[in-house]
Backbone:
């Protein structure tokens, strides 16, 4: 995908901290609890960015996970920071793993960035064992009919790919998943936006800075506002024999 990757900007971590998403590890921790994950699980962190969740899962729960991400820059950072862990440079649309290998896949603020969401979900389904869980935390549009207004901007941020939740659930079902949990977590996005305005002066300035002035931050923010962005946690299960 062409354009500017806001999430590769070091300035983004001034507001997001170690992770590159709203809420830090709060939803990661909740998902660990809801999925009943333990050190016996084999986890994939899809779109792991700088590897923060891979580190968190191991340091906090002794859960080993593999991180995968197409960004050489972010994966390079992850490898330097967390030498104990495995990181792979590749894309979610074609996962270099055997079928039925993982018991859980985390996709934290990454499905919104997939060039081909259907292919990424099919691949995720393939690499999960029966009964395995997909944890999605991501942004969605409360006004999905306005999302096309974001497409002309050469900006790669998860907010550019705001989900339509009805469509996402339908695609998950068609892929073979059963959605077992869904929670609106828009407060975490609001919290991050307030923090961003305190740090950068305005959302528009944040987009200017993190995109390296690749987009007009003010126009981008206006287009975003029309979509009414929200944030959610969803857990979907691959139907089949439970992997206990
Ligand atoms: C907003 S960042 C989130 C990173 C990390 N999950 C976190 O929360 O800290 C989005 C990540 O998705 C990755 N990404 C973009 N396109 C992808 C693709 N096709 N397959 C897998 N990851 C992708 C980006 O490189 C980036 O690291």
Residues:
């Amino acid at each position: 995908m062409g354009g500017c990757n806001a999430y590769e900007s070091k300035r983004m971590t001034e507001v997001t901290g170690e992770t590159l998403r709203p809420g830090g590890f709060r939803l990661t921790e909740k998902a660990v609890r809801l999925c009943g994950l333990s050190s016996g699980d084999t986890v994939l962190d899809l779109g792991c960015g700088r590897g923060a969740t891979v580190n968190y899962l191991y340091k906090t729960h002794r859960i080993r996970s593999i991180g995968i991400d197409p960004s050489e820059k972010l994966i390079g950072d992850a490898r330097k920071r967390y030498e104990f862990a495995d990181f792979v440079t590749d894309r979610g649309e074609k996962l270099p793993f055997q079928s039925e290998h993982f018991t859980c896949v985390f996709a934290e603020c990454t499905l919104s960035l997939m060039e081909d969401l259907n292919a990424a979900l099919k691949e995720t389904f393939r690499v999960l064992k029966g009964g395995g869980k997909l944890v999605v935390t991501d942004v969605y549009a409360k006004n999905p009919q306005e999302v096309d207004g974001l497409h002309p901007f050469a900006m790669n941020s998860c907010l550019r790919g705001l989900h339509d939740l009805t469509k996402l659930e339908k695609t998950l079902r068609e892929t073979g998943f059963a959605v077992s949990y869904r929670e609106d977590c828009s407060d975490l996005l609001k919290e991050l936006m307030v923090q961003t305005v305190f740090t950068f002066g305005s959302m528009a300035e944040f987009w200017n800075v993190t995109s390296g002035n690749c987009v007009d931050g003010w126009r981008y923010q206006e287009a975003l506002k029309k979509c009414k962005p929200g944030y959610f946690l969803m857990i979907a299960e691959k139907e089949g024999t439970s992997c206990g």
In short: The chain has one domain: 4-238. The pocket of S-adenosylmethionine is lined by residues 7, 19-21, 46-49, 52, 69-71, 74, 91-93, 108-110, 113-115, 158 (CB under 6 Å). Residues 4-238 form a domain with the Rossmann fold fold (CATH 3.40.50.150). The radius of gyration is 17 Å.
